[in-house]
Design brief:
The chain is mostly helical. It has a domain of 119 residues. It is 59% helix and 11% strand. Strand 1 and strand 2 form a beta hairpin. The radius of gyration is 42 Å and the shape is rod-shaped. The mean pLDDT is 82.
Length: 198
């Protein structure tokens, strides 16, 4: 599981029920040269309390669901608690440091207390996104099909309207011709009647 801090993912680590960070995490998030956080810790070691500010952890001390074994070395790896982290970065006073500290304290270290969505398993998120993407693709396909049907119906409608206009024009012409023939016929009849009367 990961937490997004200042546009960088940090793997969530828990030890003895609380969230912890490594020196490497601190250097990465604060964009400091490798070894900076470790050097600060060593320089002020007398102020740190083991079990409160940090833990020295060996592979045999941890459970799989807490921390990846690859992050813990056999000699012992130092894991910093929230108070230990804040003490290590006390000398970091640039704008980035303030921003990262606020995010780590408010989202990473306090996530369990706030019961928010921090630390959701990334696999779950990826599966959910994948499922939504697939459904979206299906919907787009159906929309394309419907649009094709609509275009086809519109084309047929235009053809029918065109035919209707043509048929109407032909009917009009035929009507005019029929009416014209009828008038001529009537005219001839009336003329022939006049001749017979004379």
């Amino acid at each position: 599981m990961y937490e997004l801090i200042n546009e960088k993912f940090i793997e969530i680590k828990e030890y003895k029920g609380q969230r912890v960070v490594t020196f490497k995490d601190i250097d990465t998030l604060h964009q400091r040269p490798t070894g900076t956080a470790s050097r600060n810790f060593k320089a002020n070691r007398q102020h740190f309390i083991e079990g409160v500010d940090f833990f020295i952890v060996k592979p045999a001390d941890i459970q799989i669901d807490e921390i990846r074994l690859s992050e813990i070395n056999n000699r012992g790896t130092i894991l910093l608690t929230e108070s230990g982290y804040l003490m290590v970065v006390k000398s970091f006073t640039d704008d980035l440091a303030w921003k990262v500290q606020r995010q780590l304290v408010n989202t990473y270290f306090r996530a369990k207390q706030q019961n928010n969505y921090s630390g959701i398993d990334q696999k779950v998120i990826i599966m959910a996104v994948k499922e939504l993407y697939e459904k979206n693709c299906e919907l787009n396909y159906k929309i394309d099909q419907l649009n094709n049907q609509i275009n086809k119906l519109n084309k047929e409608n235009r053809e029918l309207n065109k035919n209707n206009r043509e048929f109407t024009a032909i009917i009009k012409i035929l009507c005019e011709k029929i009416c014209g023939l009828y008038e001529k016929k009537q005219f001839r009849k009336s003329k022939s009647k006049k001749h017979t009367l004379i």
